[in-house]
Design brief:
single chain; about 100 residues; flat; mainly alpha
C-alpha cells in the first residue's frame, strides 16, 4: 500500500468512528427528550401501530417472493444454491426482528 492508500483508509476509519460516536450521542439525546403530552403520545402510538402493520405486510409479501425465487433457483440452478439463497435472504429479517 502506498502512503495515499493508507491515508485514505485511515480517513475512512476515522470518519466511521466519528459517525458511530455522533450516532450514539444523538441517540442518547433523543431518548432523554420528554415524551410529550397525552395527545402527542397517542399520535406516536398510532404511528407505531401503523408502521408495525405496514412492516408485517411487507415481510409477508417479501417472504412469498423469496419462496418463489428459492423454488426457481432450486429448479433451474441447483438445490445448494437455493439453500444458500434462503439462508442469506431470511437472515436480515431475523436480525431486524431481534434488534
Amino acid at each position: 500500500m502506498s502512503i495515499t492508500e493508507i491515508s485514505v483508509v485511515q480517513l475512512a476509519i476515522g470518519a466511521a468512528i466519528l459517525a458511530v460516536l455522533y450516532g450514539a450521542f444523538m441517540s442518547k439525546w433523543i431518548v432523554n427528550l420528554p415524551a410529550g403530552n397525552k395527545k402527542m403520545k397517542s399520535i406516536a402510538e398510532a404511528i407505531q401501530k401503523g408502521a408495525s402493520a405496514y412492516l408485517a405486510r411487507q415481510y409477508k409479501t417479501i417472504a412469498v417472493v423469496g419462496v418463489i425465487l428459492a423454488l426457481l433457483i432450486g429448479y433451474f440452478i441447483d438445490q445448494a444454491t437455493a439453500i444458500g439463497f434462503v439462508i442469506v435472504r431470511f437472515y436480515p429479517v431475523h436480525a431486524a426482528l431481534l434488534a
